[in-house]
Design brief:
It is a single chain. By secondary structure, the protein is α/β, with parallel strands linked by helices. It has helices spanning 10-21, 32-41, 81-87, 107-115, 157-168, 179-200, 204-209, 211-230, 239-248, 257-263, 274-284, 289-298, and strands at 2-6, 25-29, 43-46, 51-54, 58-60, 69-74, 92-100, 120-133, 136-149, 172-175. Helix 6 packs across helix 12 (289-298) and helix 8 (211-230) packs antiparallel against helix 9.
Length: 308
C-alpha cells in the first residue's frame, strides 16, 4: 500500500517504520531537523532488544509532493490537527482514508471537518515511544498496539484492509465495532493524569500519596465517566473504579506528556482534554468542578509559556 505518515514522531515514526519494513511505500511527513536527518541518514528505531533502520526513507514537509495515497496514519498533536489535515488534500484520492490514533476523542471530528467525516477512521494506540533525537525513535517495552474502527461501528472493507496491513507489518492491531468505547476507556485516564500531573507539576506518585490530591484524582475520574455516559458512550458499570485502580498502578515517576510539554514551554493539548470534559459537562448538565478547575488553572499555559 501507499501510505503517508502525518506526524512522524515517536508514534507515527515507529508504526511507519514497521509498515515500510513490510514492503509498503511509506512517506514520512516531518519538519525541521528531524526531516533533515531522515533524508540524510534514514529513520532509526531503537527498541529494548534491537534496532530497525529505514534507509533510504522517503520524507517530506510538503504532502503535495507525495501524490495520491491509499491511507494516511495521522498522529500529530491535537493542536496541529486542523492545519495538518488541510495539507493532506492533495494526497486524498477517491478511495483514500485517514486513520487517526491521536490523544483524546476529538481528532476524527477535527480532521473530518476539513477532509470530510466519511474519510476518517479513529482509534487509540498503546505504545511507549518518543523522538530521541533527529531521525531517531526510541521504543520502550513491548506494547505497540492499535485499536481502531469506523465511528458508526461498521466493519468496512477499508477497515479490514488496514487491519491486514498492520498484521503484515507485525503490528498488534484490532479492528473494532465499538471503537468509541475503546477511545473513551483510554481518554478518561489520559485526561485525568494529564490534568493532575500538569496542575501539580509532579509525577503521579506524589499526587496519589497525598490524600487530598488522591481524592481529586478520583473525583476527576468520576466526572469524566459521567460525561462519557451522558454523551451516550457505552462504558462498563464499574468504569470509574477500574480507571481509579489503573491510575494507581502507574509507575511512581509517571509524567503525562502534557506535563512534559508544559515543562518545556510548549503548547498543550489542554483544550481537548480537561477543558473539553468541562465544556461537555456544562452542555449536558453534568457537574465537572475538578476538570473545570484544572482547565482554568492551566489556561494561561495552554498556548505555551506565557510572556512576562
Amino acid at each position: 500500500m501507499k501510505i503517508a505518515i502525518m506526524g512522524s514522531g515517536g508514534v507515527g515514526g515507529y508504526f511507519g517504520a514497521k509498515m515500510a519494513l513490510a514492503g509498503n511505500d511509506v512517506t514520512f511527513i516531518a519538519r525541521g531537523a528531524h526531516l533533515d536527518a531522515i533524508r540524510k541518514n534514514g529513520l532509526l528505531v531503537k527498541t529494548d532488544t534491537s534496532e530497525l533502520k529505514i534507509d533510504p526513507a522517503k520524507a517530506t514537509d510538503d504532502p503535495a509532493t507525495i501524490g495520491p495515497v491509499d491511507v494516511v496514519l495521522f498522529t500529530t498533536k491535537l493542536y496541529d490537527t486542523t492545519e495538518a489535515a488541510a495539507q493532506l488534500a492533495p494526497v486524498m484520492g477517491p478511495g483514500a482514508y485517514v486513520v487517526t490514533v491521536q490523544n483524546g476523542v476529538s481528532g476524527a471530528d477535527l480532521i473530518g471537518a476539513v477532509l470530510g467525516r466519511d474519510r476518517v477512521l479513529a482509534g487509540s494506540t498503546y505504545i511507549i515511544s518518543h523522538l530521541e533525537g533527529p531521525g531517531v525513535i526510541r521504543h520502550m517495552g513491548t506494547f505497540q498496539r492499535i485499536v481502531f474502527g469506523e465511528m458508526d461501528g461498521s466493519m468496512s472493507a477499508r477497515g479490514k484492509a488496514f487491519e491486514q496491513l498492520c498484521k503484515e507489518s507485525d503490528i498488534d492491531v484490532e479492528f473494532s465495532d465499538k471503537v468509541l468505547t475503546t477511545m473513551w476507556e483510554k481518554f478518561i485516564p489520559l485526561t485525568v493524569m494529564s490534568g493532575m500531573t500538569s496542575l501539580m507539576r509532579l509525577p503521579i506518585g506524589p499526587i496519589l500519596a497525598d490524600p487530598d490530591l488522591s481524592a481529586m484524582v478520583d473525583a476527576a475520574v468520576e466526572e469524566a465517566v459521567s460525561v462519557g455516559r451522558a454523551k451516550g458512550v457505552e462504558l462498563h458499570e464499574n468504569a470509574a473504579s477500574r480507571v481509579q485502580k489503573g491510575v494507581r498502578m502507574a509507575p511512581y515517576e509517571t509524567k503525562a506528556s502534557m506535563l512534559i510539554d508544559l515543562e518545556r514551554g510548549k503548547k498543550m493539548e489542554l483544550p481537548w482534554l480537561s477543558a473539553s470534559v468541562a465544556k461537555w459537562g456544562e452542555e449536558l448538565g453534568i457537574p465537572t468542578p475538578t476538570h473545570k478547575f484544572i482547565a482554568t488553572a492551566l489556561k494561561p499555559y495552554a498556548s505555551g509559556a506565557p510572556k512576562a
